[in-house]
Amino acid sequence: MRKNYPRFTLRVSSTMLEKLAYIADYHGRTKNKEIEYILKKQIAEFERLYGHITTTIESDEDF
To answer: Bigger pLDDT: 6 or 13?
Structure first.
């Protein structure tokens, strides 16, 4: 089932986008899913070091 996530525009250089596409393809993911994976890893690492981040909205993710 597709979730209705908010949209977020990300501006990156053409080189970075091409490298992201290469990495995503290597992992068998779309560029969007690769970015989600990277963000989840970074958030988990930040919370491991500095503690849980409390949000003002009900969680729609498994962190």
So the answer is: 13
Task: Supply 11's token pair.
Answer: 């501006």
User: What pLDDT digit, counting tens, does each position of 7-38 carry?
Assistant: 999 999 999 999 999 999 999 999 999 999 99
Element (H, E) at 41: helix 31-50
Domain that holds residue 25: 14-50
Q: Would you say residue 33 lies in a domain?
A: yes
**CA pair distance 30, 9, nearest whole angstrom:** 16
